[in-house]
Amino acid sequence: MPRITRAFKLKQLPVCIKRQTGLNCYQDGKPITGNNYVFEHLDDNPNNTVSTNIGISCQSCNIKKSSNYDMKLKALELKKHYEAMALDPDEGENLTHSASSEIDINRKCYGYTKQWLTEIINIDGKTELNDAVFSIVFDCQEKFGAGAESTIRKYINTLTLARGSNFMQIKDEDKKRWIVKRSGN
Ligand SMILES: [Zn+2]
Fold first, then answer.
1. What distances in angstroms separate CA 50 from CA 15, 41, 82, 92, 138, one per listed residue?
2. Domain spans of the chain?
3. In this structure, which topology does domain 99-181 adopt according to CATH?
């Protein structure tokens, strides 16, 4: 029975963020705060764990939905939409391909880098630096058609080395670099 595993969540999170254009609740549209979200089966079938059947919602909407017909309907419509999107390879492009200037794209990549780190560290507590770099480069290329490795490294350094940033880098015994939540100040 394919319930939602941690590995699935890690893969699905950037997909949901992209489809929902940010980390927010697909029901009420409000931004998610902290860990107050669930990966929800849109059709309420816990065994139907496929990407097009998963949306991110806040915990309170998730609970309300179990007894709310309109919310169930909304979820099913969204599922249909995701299925249609998955069949249309151009659709994803259209979502992001407005006439973006270079600054706009840089801003998006920076924003995505920050969001990615925030989410992964919420889930895992840490992430290896190189994993982070390559995952974010891949996602930014897919989403925005931009994001060179050197650029993403620069963004990660800004987000982890600057005083007052939320994250920091640590080295383990094998000299591997990890990104973790900044402790103290
Ligand atoms: Zn909600």
1. 12, 9, 11, 18, 21
2. 6-91, 99-181
3. Arc Repressor Mutant, subunit A (1.10.10)
- State pTM to two decimals: 0.50
pLDDT digits (tens, 9 = 90+) for 166-177: 899 999 999 999
Task: Please say whether the beta carbons of 85 and 19 come within 8 A.
Answer: yes
* Cα 29 to averaged position of ligand 1 atoms, centre (Å): 7
Side chain identity at residue 65, one-letter code: K
34-88 pLDDT, tens digit per residue, is 889 999 999 999 999 999 999 999 999 999 999 999 999 999 999 999 988 877 6
Residues with Cβ < 8 Å from 148, sequence gap 6 or more? 137
129 C-alpha to ligand 1 centroid (Å): 32
> How many whole angstroms from 65 Cα to the centroid of ligand 1?
10
